[in-house]
Amino acid sequence: MAGKTLYDKLWDQHVVKTREDGTALIYIDRQLLHEVTSPQAFEGLRIAGRKPWRLDANLATPDHNVPTTVLERKSGIEGIQDPVSRIQVKTLDDNCDHFGINEFKMADKRQGIVHVVGPEQGATLPGMTVVCGDSHTATHGAFAALAHGIGTSEVEHVLATQCLIQRKMKNLLIKVDGELGKGITGKDVVLHVIGVIGTAGGNGCAMEFGGSAIRSMSMEGRMTMCNMAIEAGARVGMVAFDEITAEYVKGRPFAPKADQWEQAVAAWSDLKSDDDAEFDKVVEIRAEDIKPQVTWGTSPEMVTTVDGTVPTLEDAEDDVERSGFTRAYEYMGLKPGQKITDIKLDRVFIGSCTNSRIEDLRAAAEVAKGRKVADSLIQALVVPGSGLVKAQAEEEGLDKVFEEAGFEWREPGCSMCLAMNADKLGSGEHCASTSNRNFEGRQGYGGRTHLVSPAMAAAAAIAGHFVDVREF
Amino acid sequence: MKAFTVHQGVVAPMDRANIDTDMIIPKQFLKSIKRSGFGPNLFDELRYLDEGQPDADNSGRPLNPDFVLNQPRYAGASVLLARENFGCGSSREHAPWALEDFGFRAIIAPSYADIFYNNSFKNGLLPIVLDEETVDRLFKETEANEGYQLTVDLENQKVVTPSGEEIAFEVDDFRRHCLLNGLDDIGLTLQDADEIKAYEEKRRASSPWLFA
Ligand code: SF4
Fold first, then answer.
1. Residues A256, B209: C-beta atoms closer than 8 Å
2. Do A137 and A149 touch, CB atoms closer than 8 A?
3. Partner of A294 at 20 to 30 A CA spacing, among A8, A245, A438, B95?
4. A353 Cβ inside 6 Å of ligand 1
């Protein structure tokens, strides 16, 4: 019999019960909550007179709606200008207080983007099932956890039962072997992968990232990759457990303590696909082939290399893609064949659950150090992923590096990733962004997003247009 | 979820096909952080003469006197009679939330949009399918008799008219079981509570660090 994949193992470990119709009741070890997708779930509990099944499995923090300027943050929730945002943030506080759920409120140093906070606290651990009412929950799979985004009804279901009704997915392995070039990060690798397999490439699959390039990648890089698994159509992204995982987890507030640590590591050491495991699909990628990536269009698969050009209609595979290209040229204000380095930028955004961890900020600061943001830019924002990332960066003096270069240094939150707060693109503006979605209007009505790595974003901010960070 | 066994109530006739979810609850109300409280804005654009706003007070708004739910003879209606393809359009669960919040417990129509049909069962609202001819007859009887009431008996799968006529209807066993017992997905999963607890104990023993 063939061995098991990492996904098979995680699945088997969490099946409470299999039903006749092929669905299974899966036990959930951790639920993360934020203000946007939880209110109706809590309301549902209240109406039905139910209580959360297990309080200690939940952790909440507001992120999508929170303002990121010191000024707006200063007066707390009451200071949030947009009334709808204010109510949503306040509602999360009220719900968590009412039900007794552990929440890092807006003023708490530990507040931040759920997908940054979970791992940072050790609230995401290897071998766990992790859910959140947010599609980028795939991030947590970097810890050899089974993590996926869920809808509001399911948030309520997990709150009430600690379980989720699921069907098993297929196994997909993305194998990246070799050594990544200088300046190439997890972001470039995952954008390259999406370019190769497309935004539907992972549909119905749990996607494991393996191969020597992944094995030598930091946890931050792995999280960035798993974060964007969903952009390749996979609800789940995963990386096997190893020394690097253990090193990252050790000593974090929610991590196993002294006597339990050894026991936990022993249990986790099997969290990898067996050598003879069978995947439904394997995609092999050579690390050496990957260059710095820049998206040119309105879908993450519309991606090319920094030394490349906007594709022409001849490059499209079929009519569907051709009409997609045509719409994207129009929306993005780009011409086929135009050089990527000729795209002028109006704003730069370094942040989001994809790239707002300390390593991301360090990479961007290294590029920004001693340089100045181009005068042609309207704004260059750096938004740390959590209060603790912010504090760490400040301790290392990164805030000064950014501010001296002309970047704005902000308070933690989702910010311009989806523009639910005041940080937005104006119509027609081009933005180099370290976030994960370049959909029409994602960063503001009519805004034009180009997805890149943190170092590429910083270099673009200095130059005022895209430049190859390897030559910068 | 409220259990549904037998329900008797006043019938309100909405003589219109293809009532979509936008009509049932317009988009501006989806910003709400709640799952309840949509009743006052049910059929907002048909019911009032001005544009509704979320969180606004609806009491002073001008009512459309022609709209069926504004007519005194249908006050307190809890059974909605409609034409084919009821609930088409978006997947918003706000549509059954609004109908239920207003006070409806059952709908009778010749057909429904799939998603709406599903969502209704999840929210304690029973969508009954009767053939077009029967629905047409019920429309006539409702309009001819003020205070016309129907009895919906889910247990025995029949609608009973004031004259005692019994009209049988079909409903999938599993859904019927859930609704009769007031079980939503959560309720169902909670039937396995012992198994969940047993699993949890095993997990606590093997991975104690997962439990605070
Ligand atoms: S940073 Fe962006 S993608 Fe991540 S959780 Fe926030 S809004 Fe979603």
1. yes
2. yes
3. A245
4. yes
